[in-house]
Amino acid sequence: MLSRLSELIWADWIWFPEGHGWDDLKDHDGKVFPKTRDLWAVFPVALCFLVIRQIFEQTIALPLASLMGVRDKHRICASPNPILESHFCSKSKHPTQSSIEGLSKQTGSSVRQVQRWFRQRRNQDRPSKLRKFQEASWRFTFYLLAFFAGLAVLIDKPWFHDVKMVWENFPKMPLLPSQYWYYMIELGFYVSLVFSVASDVKRKDFKEQIVHHVATILLIGFSWLVNYIRAGTLIMLVHDASDYLMESAKMFNYAGWKRTCNCVFTVFAAVFIITRLIIFPFWIIYATGVYPLTLYSTFFGFYFFNGLLVVLLVLHIFWTGLILRMVIKFLPGNDIVEDERSDKEETESDDEDDGEQRQKPKNGHMQNGHAVLNNNHRKTD
User: What is the pLDDT of residues 216-245, one digit of tens each?
Assistant: First the structure.
């Protein structure tokens, strides 16, 4: 039964256009083609990336951070309190006003002290600026090298200049050594990101990042299996084109280089929009999802591959919205770009503002110690 199921899953008509199949990917006459077993090499590559990353962050990123002036603020740790810790871990990191008042009575602390404890406790869980710089510098280094390596691999290839050439002689396109290493390194890096997700800096778009990593791994892996390698290399190059600019903007942000950060981020936003919202859909997806209809009848593999590309495109649109919001914030003045996806460290004034917002709706405006009856005052959340 299992062999029957395997035959059905790997049937030629599912993954290839009519008249083609897995037999086309067998080595012959000195020509080598991608194979499923090749993907096992991704795991030792991913492991190597994890080890190299630790060495890089300690021996290169830390001295670089010191050179660029990255400094962490001193954090006051929350005092041990079993009642507040239990509420923080099991119920909410952001308790409501009624919860704070209840916890105040349970612990014998003032409302202000409870608010301060939760602020300090939340700050303890936030990654330090130095930790963020280390991660950004590691990703910057990889994306920069990957982009120029990919460019070197593709610059002399005919499908780099004419994307329709990705289908020439499909699927009987022999594998080049440069394509093999480009694939293994890119796929190994994304697998390493999945392995390190628990320790990496958590951002507001954490779920979208996970979806992106999984879709990218499936896309690269699938394109390898069915020899969509020409299209796959173009897709990887387009994505790497802007990523190193984003990571470098983060590095300048953490170092406090405001104008440099703003300039680099502006360039990043332009490159991101051009590559992800123009080149990617109108050249890449057109070449993989529209042009093939003139050559072959549709099949499941065609829909699966292009479906993953559409998932990435949706994420690109989502991130473009965040990017434009950040660009708009600093255009009128010289303020530094703030990453919309990052949690900001809370300060004492945050508690004061929070307390004022909670008290206003409850007490209203006061005059000589008495509440003024006024139904036109502004409501706050």
Answer: 899 999 999 999 999 999 999 999 999 999
What pLDDT score does 197 carry? Answer: 76
Q: Which of 136, 124, 21 is nearest to 70 (CA)?
A: 136
Name residue 130's amino acid: L
Query: How far apart, in whole angstroms, are the C-alpha atoms of residue 139 and residue 126?
Result: 20
* Cα–Cα distance, 308 to 273 (Å, whole number): 19
- Model pLDDT for residues 306-347, shown as the tens digit of each residue: 999 999 999 999 999 989 888 887 665 545 555 555 555 555
- CA end-to-end span of the chain, whole Å? 60
- The model carries a pTM of 0.78
- Per-residue pLDDT reduced to its tens digit, 11-47: 888 888 888 889 888 988 889 999 989 999 999 999 9
Alpha helices (runs of H) in the chain, residue ranges in sequence order? 2-9, 12-15, 42-56, 62-68, 82-90, 97-107, 111-125, 129-154, 158-161, 177-195, 206-225, 229-255, 258-274, 300-330, 348-363
Q: Which residue has the tokens 């997806």?
A: 285
- Cis, bond preceding 171 (omega within 30 deg of 0): yes
Using an 8 Å Cβ cutoff, are 50 and 192 in contact?
yes
Q: What token pair was written down for 29?
A: 């006459």
The secondary structure of residue 367, as a DSSP letter, is E
| pLDDT digits 0-9 by tens, 276-306 | 999 999 999 999 999 998 888 888 999 999 9
| CB contact at 8 A, 39 and 190 | no
Mean pLDDT of the 354-371 span:
44
- CA distance linking residue 6 with residue 114, whole number of Å: 60
Token pair 């703030």 is found at 338
| 157 Rama sector, left if φ>0, alpha if ψ -120 to 50, beta otherwise | beta
Only one residue has tokens 């206003």, namely 360
